[in-house]
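User: Okay, second chain of the day. Same drill as before: sequence in, structure tokens out.
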Amino acid sequence: MKKPFSYFEHDADIGIVGQGKTVEQAFESAARAVFSIMTNLDAIHARDEIRVEFEETDLEFALVIWINLILGKARESGMVFNEFHLQRNGQYWHAEVSGEKWREEHERGVEVKGATFTMLSVKQNPGGWEARCVVDV
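Assistant: Same drill. Structure tokens below.
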């Protein structure tokens, strides 16, 4: 099965691309792309769940808010997330993200500091939605 996310090169940072049938699925795939930079998500157990909410009408701004919000929650709680369930009702976004605490045995990749506005794009294509931006590493 093809992964619902990919990467593109960008100088010292990394570009992420999330894809999905809905904008919410594209954002979830973008989140997986971000956390996959940091560790092997297949080795993470979705033991603990954290809820996040935000409000934004602009889809591009919402992508940056979403990524930065879950990165902040991961740092704050000492966790890594591997499951993302995002729902939107107009401008209101609600999500449950699941994962576990960082453990020594987790593979350490590159730390992602945050999503940027560089090459930011959220658009609907014939096959679904694509959400992309550059993340600061």
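The mean pLDDT is 94.

User: Thanks, on to the next one.
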